[in-house]
TrEMBL record:
One of its GO terms (cellular component) is membrane. GO terms for molecular function: acyltransferase activity. It comes from the Bacteria. PANTHER family: MONOACYLGLYCEROL_DIACYLGLYCEROL O-ACYLTRANSFERASE, TRANSMEMBRANE PROTEIN 68. SUPFAM superfamilies: Glycerol-3-phosphate (1)-acyltransferase. This is Phospholipid/glycerol acyltransferase domain-containing protein. Residues 63-182 form the Phospholipid/glycerol acyltransferase domain.
Length: 281
């Protein structure tokens, strides 16, 4: 129906217009410096943050950090790693994180942009790397972050390999960043891809999942847009060995992608085997 198509196009335009343009200057080192001690204390107490291998990240220059992603729209892995990176390298080192359009445009989350969070697209990513920054990306996106909690230790990018092209074009190394614990911040029951198609948000908002989950204080929830309290799950993150820019330039996307996935899955399996109980760790 032409009327329905017009309505979809209007809704897409309105949502796109509300996505903040990537302005790398919105990252505020002074703000991060002020917030870092209190937030790191919170991460250490509530999530019992354990971040390993930061010395494997090149000490300066642009680098693409590629992680497996967990925890829905309140991903504790991103929260913990961002604080750890800024603590280890100092707030003056430029560091950005890509996030879904809806996350960066939600009211009340402007502080994320002060920490360097920008909308996830190729142009923003290329701009950050060109500026000489470290950039954190999660190729699995909402497909991976909303996977059922019983698949919490599966690394699944849903076939997405665009990050390899990004690294090759920018001439930067890829550093895999493995994490466990985030998918225990709530009980994710279903990705809800069928629900996203039914509601049309896959076309309107580039949102492929409307997850079904159990989380306090609401109990059963449909979608992850309503503020909730993440469970105090133990978050363990481990940086893996870098893949050199020269190796990326000389190999096909499939080869590099398989190497990244193998690195992440091997680390997640090992870190997951250390956990005795869900949430408790």
């Amino acid at each position: 129906m032409p009327g329905f198509s017009d309505a979809l196009e209007w809704a897409k335009h309105e949502l796109s217009a509300r996505v903040p343009k990537a302005d790398l200057d919105q990252r505020d080192a002074d703000y991060i410096r002020e917030q870092l001690p209190g937030l790191w204390l919170l991460a250490s107490l509530y999530f019992r943050a354990d971040v390993r291998g930061l010395d494997r990240i090149p000490k300066d220059g642009p680098v693409l950090l590629v992680g497996n992603h967990s925890g829905g729209n309140l991903p504790p892995d991103t929260f913990v790693f961002t604080l750890a990176f800024c603590s280890y390298f100092g707030v003056e080192r430029p560091f950005y994180q890509l996030a879904h359009n809806l996350v960066v445009s939600m009211p009340g989350l402007g502080s994320l942009r002060k920490f360097g969070t920008v909308a996830a697209n190729h142009d923003n990513a290329a701009l950050a790397l060109k500026s000489g920054a470290a950039l954190l990306v999660y190729p699995g996106g909402d497909y991976e972050v909303f996977r059922p909690s019983w698949k919490r230790h599966e690394v699944d990018f849903d076939g997405r390999q665009g990050y390899v092209t990004l690294a090759r074009e920018a001439g930067v190394p890829i550093v895999p960043v493995a994490s466990v614990g985030g998918q225990e911040a709530a009980l994710f029951l279903d990705r809800g891809q069928w629900l996203a198609r039914l509601l049309g948000v896959d076309r309107i908002a580039r949102l492929k999942s409307v997850p079904i989950l159990l989380a306090p204080p609401w109990g059963l929830a449909v979608s992850d847009m309503v503020p909730r309290l993440p469970l105090p799950t133990k978050i363990v993150i481990e940086v893996q060995d870098p893949i050199d820019a020269e190796d990326i330039a000389a190999a096909d996307d499939d080869v590099i992608n398989d190497k990244v996935l193998a690195s992440l899955q091997g680390a997640v399996d090992r870190l997951g085997a250390e956990r005795r109980f869900p949430v408790i760790g």
